[in-house]
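Run non-specific serine/threonine protein kinase through structure prediction, thanks.
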Amino acid sequence: MADSRIALRLLMQLLIQFYLDVKFILVSPPFHRLQENLPFLSRTNTMDNGTDLPRASINSSQEKSDRKQKRYTVYKVVVKNSNQSWFVLRRYTEFDKLFSTLKKRFPHMALKIPAKRIFGNNFDPDFIKQRSEGLNGFIQTVMSNPELFKLPEVHSFLQLDNPRSEPDFFDIEDHNDRNNKASEMNLGPSGNPLAKPSDFAFQKVLGKGSYGKVLLAKHKSDGKVYAVKVLQKAAILKKKEERHVMAERNVLVKNCSHPFLVGLHYSFQTTEKLYFVLDYVNGGELFFHLQRERCFPEPRARFYTAEIASAIGYLHSLNIIYRDLKPENILLDFEGHIKLTDFGLCKEGMQPEETTNTFCGTPEYLAPEILRKEPYDRTVDWWCLGSVLYEMLYGLPPFYCRDIPIMYDNILHKPVQLRPPASPAACDAMRCMLWKDKASRLGAQRDFEEIKSHKFFESIAWEELDTKCVLVPFRPTVDGPDDLQNFDIEFLEQPVTASVCCDSESRLSVSVMEADDAFLGFSYAPPVPDDFH
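Sure, done. The structure for non-specific serine/threonine protein kinase is below.
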């Protein structure tokens, strides 16, 4: 009887798979018809504002094997714009993930990808060809729709935020022939073979975290000093934090254009570690200076708050929520300007009207709606800004208590206590940012523009602030570009382990990189200058 049920179940699965395969053949037009019906394949695709969109298509696929000899297929997606060309390698699971994201956000759109195949040979040439054409049709649909194209998930999938010039790329087969190494290939924007641990002289430990450490390092070729964040892949995967790490990487790539955000210069990986090569900011954490001075005069607190608000406003303009604003994540550079760091809790793709509900952040700075496990939006960042301003003026977060349950109750129910020496304008700004109802909070209606227009900031010249043309109220004591006096001696005295500098496996084979789905697309190098201008 049991054997009959198993046989019946297998028969049903075969019928379902046959139905899905036939349905896909019936509803998916041949690739030549796609070319005829979609003009953007033969002409430059243009958005309503006249800006040229890049073009993307799948032009080949290859079969690979992971470390356990499990076979899979990668599809080469070639992306071109008016003067650049690059490619990315993507597996079917990545297409499926993007499809699910877009379908959830735009359920009314007729988006399709080939169905998953339960039975049959997934490596049959006819099946691979059919799947390639179906995935290519999906990419064409995405590229032809400005509403889809502008989404950060699409930009990340196609590596649109760090394109490189065409001369730096060549076909997979050509590259394998030149190097005579069948297991290595140029990964385009997803890989940077010139960046590896041995390129850097690691000098001191600057800090430690749950998944790794931050080290002072000097690039051997040009002598530039960086802070290199080194993370253990195993620890990240054990805690299932890979999505946060990839979100941090994506945000860091976009940070270089803002003066008050720590920027990314390179990211690369070995088989065991991830490396972020970041701006070295050696004026110390805001937390370090608050501990030493207890609180700041109001003009100094206003200056820092304005620069922080500018950075948060920029992230919001990219549809990113920061979610972890606290003095430990605010650095001072050698001139006295702030730089936000640590973007692991950032939430991407957050349109102004959208909400999320992940419980995350630091206890002292959690907004009431997060504690209530309600959907929340970008106003949580303005709550945190009000909390940091309060701490700069009074020495402690507004609802602080050593007993965390009591502190949470204070955040939910206790009115914020405001008193001199804070000015009436400062008190009003804090009261408005620390409003427990997010819909009534300062920034709820017009976001950063609403913050800027508050009377507490009426003395701030915002354009001059963003160009660092204003007089800083405090300049940290820094003797040089690699000065360490503003870092905790507890970390500085720790040895730099040899494993951090080891790059014997830093040039990853394709099978290793593509099998490690969690960190696909992690590596980054800055765009090279165009030769076409």
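The first helix runs from residue 2 to 27.
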